[in-house]
Specification:
The structure holds two protein chains of two kinds.
Chain A: H1 2-34, H2 38-48, H3 52-69, H4 71-80, H5 82-101, H6 108-138, H7 152-155, H8 158-182, H9 185-216, H10 222-226, H11 232-245, H12 253-275, E1 278-280, E2 290-291, H13 299-326
Antiparallel strand pairs in A: 1-2
Chain B: H1 3-43, H2 46-79, H3 82-92, H4 95-116, H5 118-121, H6 123-152, E1 157-159, E2 165-167, H7 170-174, H8 177-207, H9 212-248, H10 250-257, E3 263-264, E4 268-275, E5 280-287, H11 290-296, E6 302-303, H12 317-346, H13 354-362, H14 365-380, E7 385-387, E8 391-392, H15 403-434
Antiparallel strand pairs in B: 1-2, 3-6, 4-5, 7-8
Helix pairs in contact in B: 1-2, 1-6, 1-8, 1-15, 2-3, 2-4, 2-15, 4-6, 6-8, 8-9, 8-13, 8-14, 9-12, 10-12, 12-14
The chains are: A mainly alpha, B mainly alpha.
Chain lengths: 338, 444
């Protein structure tokens, strides 16, 4: 039971990360095209400025919790994806430094440099995280020794590339919806147009990836066969998309942002249920799969760390809500930090 | 030791040593920002508010670099040391997420509020946020040191018949006796570093005859805090941290002191170069029987030398020995330097003694060296153990990661960190050049 709880705690944390840092990544991956001059780029940066660091902590906290709850998954996954994760680290450094250093000088070349860093860092991060998720759903060549070696040749398979592209377009759409809420003027107008176009691409990619998932897993995932009630979640994907369609109007930006948030939550939870109760399925032999039982810490350790972290998590949720509330509404450039 | 193990060790050592350059300062500076902020609240004097704001800017740049260089370390437990994580994650991992959810959120959240400024958030909340930044960074350090202390002295676990370990007591891991004094010594070192940085930059302003009032405040603060901190660095924190080494890690002690033969009334080597082939110190200067006294409080006590242990249990002797002697040597010089400063302050000559101000300014790098050297003693001296007495280092690496991959990414980190260092120095130099009084935010 405690193992199942931990599965959903980690799932919830990664989902929170994807919704929250997702719009930062989305804004970043479109930034060069959607924000055309210095004022617009500052406005885009200031829209995420006070929150991006806090959003990223969800990923780090999830990593720390993975160590203590399912240490084997952490060990096998992180060492298997060694090179890809090093790349993720470098991109995280590049993105963080780009956001913070851009405003330090007015020199246009300096600013162009960090604009490019912010853009490429965000775009590749979204792609890589999506590729990683795709590989987890598809399964990894975990052998009898319990480990695998994640070469790029292995990881960049067609299915994972599709999930990578899906992640990029969903987060980009989410980002444009965020910009619709936070900005005004020409940037706002452009965000509305991009949001409409991206909606169609998102729909197309959701259909493609859904079909590809059935092909790759040769049928519907086990969880959905065992618990038919689980089909509710993919239904929410549909709800998110339809809601997004009816939020195209210029005055429906908040609604649009909520619809893309719902879509991401539904996608993440569907992916989680697709692998459940596995965490890292093996493509070699199902008995080598790492699941929530054979990779977990002792029940005592799981209970203790759940309690120890619960209070902190509550504080984090209260704090994040507070910060989002303090900085709510349209960005004004006069008091901006970036 | 094979190439892959060596590559993993080099990668972790390089990334952790680079990362640590930033928390050394933020953990110490947070306290001084809270101090200036409190004085500002109590006295309403502008110079304290100026000081708090200036050091917060330096803090922010260090914090940003600390965050981006810290993320790789959390990953490396899994990417480089997967068999160690798989083995002990449920035990040592208890303290890792706590750092994220308790300390880090506190620190980054309050820092944002503090930097937003008094006018935006109000006097009292601004002061509270200064305390939050200091508290968050100090707490953050504790969780990390507690994780490390478990590797120095594993506690709070049970081993089952298959050799796997399970958590027995969360509190035993969190309140590891090794962690308490290691933490006190670490934080004391961070505070002392901050005192030197404050004093060094203050001395720079006095020497270049700019921002006189701020320079005086900084140098005075540094000297008064520095005298206390350089003494507490030695006693009690250094002494009691050393007592843990004596009690739990005899091979580390012998390597630190360059003691090869087990001796009753063992001498303390002040200088000398260890020769591991012949098992003696070259050109030693000894204080007779003093090591026995330091370790056991008795001049005739017996101290085990390296020769009492099989050679495959020796840590790298030279590195451990030199780093320990560099740390202690610098620590001794810091005490002398700060006492001279206190004397000059008493004679009211501190601000006019240019030779002392020059010395103080040029001293900025040395506490960093002492801190890093201390951690080399702690970590290299722990070898060949990854978890002292429980798991050897080669058994904890990721066997599925080739040396070639690790060497390649280490080169990548070296390049990235070189660029980050240049940017960091550029930004800090700009903040110092602008000085403490400029109020308008630099951002356009």
């Amino acid at each position: 039971m405690i193992n199942v709880i931990w599965f959903f705690v980690l799932g919830a944390m990664l989902t929170a990360y994807t919704v929250l840092d997702g719009y930062d990544l989305g804004v970043g991956s479109l930034s060069l095209w959607i924000a055309r001059n210095d004022d617009e780029r500052r406005m885009a940066l200031n829209s995420i400025g006070p929150v991006w660091n806090g959003n990223e902590v969800w990923l780090l906290a999830a990593g720390g919790m993975l160590v203590v709850s399912f240490p084997r998954v952490y060990a096998v996954g992180f060492s298997g994806f060694y090179l890809a994760l090093m790349l993720v680290l470098w991109l995280l450094i590049l993105r963080g430094v780009s956001i913070e250093f851009r405003s330090q000088s007015r020199n246009p070349l300096w600013r162009d440099l960090w604009d490019a860093g912010f853009w490429v860092g965000s775009l590749l991060l979204a792609l890589l995280l999506g590729v990683a998720l795709g590989n987890v759903v598809r399964g990894l060549p975990i052998g009898a020794d319990g480990y695998f070696q994640g070469t790029f040749a292995l990881m960049l398979n067609p299915y994972a590339l599709l999930t990578g592209i899906l992640t990029v377009v969903v987060l980009a759409w989410h980002g444009t919806n965020y910009l619709r809420v936070k900005t005004e003027g020409a940037l706002f107008e452009r965000a509305v147009r991009w949001s409409r176009t991206l909606w169609w691409i998102v729909v197309a990619m959701v259909i493609v990836v859904t079909i590809a998932t059935f092909v790759v897993l040769s049928g519907s995932p086990r969880t959905f066969n065992v618990y038919p009630a689980a089909w509710v979640l993919p239904l929410f994907i549909l709800v998110g998309l339809v809601w997004g369609f009816f939020s195209r109007g210029e005055n429906r930006s908040t609604s649009a942002f909520r619809s893309s948030s719902l879509l991401i939550i539904a996608l993440m939870l569907t992916a989680a249920l697709t692998v459940f109760p596995n965490l890292l399925p093996s493509t070699v032999d199902p008995q080598y799969s790492l699941n929530i039982y054979n990779s977990a810490s002792s029940p005592h350790a799981l209970r203790v760390s759940l309690i120890a972290n619960a209070f902190g998590m509550i504080a984090v949720i209260v704090y994040s809500t507070y910060v989002h509330r303090v900085f709510h509404g349209k960005v004004r450039l006069d008091e901006g930090h970036y | 030791m094979n190439e892959a193990v060596f590559a993993h060790r080099i990668q972790f050592a390089f990334t952790v040593m680079f990362h640590y350059l930033f928390p050394i300062l933020t953990m110490g500076l947070g306290f001084f920002i809270a101090l200036f902020s409190t004085l500002s609240l109590l006295t309403k004097e502008k110079r304290y508010a100026d000081a708090a704001r200036f050091w917060a800017k330096i803090f922010a740049v260090n914090f940003a670099l600390g965050v981006v260089s810290g993320i790789p370390l959390e990953f490396e437990f899994g990417t480089n040391w997967s068999r160690f994580s798989s083995f002990g994650g449920g035990v040592f991992g208890q303290t890792l997420p706590l750092e994220g959810v308790y300390a880090f959120f506190l620190e980054s959240g309050f820092l944002g509020m503090f930097l937003a400024g008094e006018n935006r958030v109000g006097r009292r909340l601004h002061w509270i946020s200064a305390l939050g930044v200091a508290g968050g960074s100090l707490l953050s350090g504790y969780f990390i040191v507690a994780t490390n202390a478990w590797m120095q002295h594993p506690v709070g676990y049970v081993m089952d018949s298959s050799g796997a370990i399970h958590l027995r007591s969360f509190w035993a891991v969190l309140l590891n006796p090794y962690a308490i004094w290691q933490y006190a010594h670490t934080i004391n070192g961070a505070l002392l570093t901050a005192a030197f940085v404050i004093g060094g930059i203050g001395a720079f302003y006095l020497l270049s005859e700019r921002h006189r009032e701020f320079g005086m405040l900084s140098v005075k603060t540094a000297v008064v805090a520095g005298v206390i901190l350089s003494l507490t660095q030695l006693f009690p924190t250094g002494d009691l941290n050393g007592a843990n080494v004596v009690q739990y890690q005899p091979t580390k002690l012998a390597a630190m002191e360059g003691l090869f033969d087990t001796e009753q009334g063992a001498p303390l080597a002040i200088i000398g170069m260890p020769d591991t082939e012949s098992g003696k110190l070259i050109d030693p200067v000894y204080v007779p029987e003093f090591l026995s006294f330091l370790a056991y409080g008795n001049f005739r006590a017996t101290v085990d030398g390296l020769n009492s242990y099989s050679r495959d249990l020796w840590p790298p002797v030279e590195l451990t020995y030199y780093c320990y002697h560099i740390m202690v040597g610098l620590g001794t010089i810091f005490i002398a330097q700060m006492l001279v400063g206190l004397f000059l302050l008493w004679r009211r000559k501190l601000h006019s003694s240019r030779w002392f101000l020059w010395m103080l300014m040029l001293s900025i790098p040395f506490p960093y060296i002492a801190n890093e050297a201390g951690w080399v003693v702690a970590e290299v001296g722990r070898q060949p153990w990854l978890v002292y007495g429980l798991m050897k280092t080669p058994a904890g690496t990721s066997a599925n990661v080739a040396a070639g991959e690790t060497i390649f990414t280490t080169m990548g980190f070296a390049g990235i960190y070189a660029v980050l260092s240049i940017l960091f120095l550029f930004l800090v130099a700009r903040i110092i050049n602008r000085g403490p009084q400029e109020d308008v935010t630099a951002h356009a």
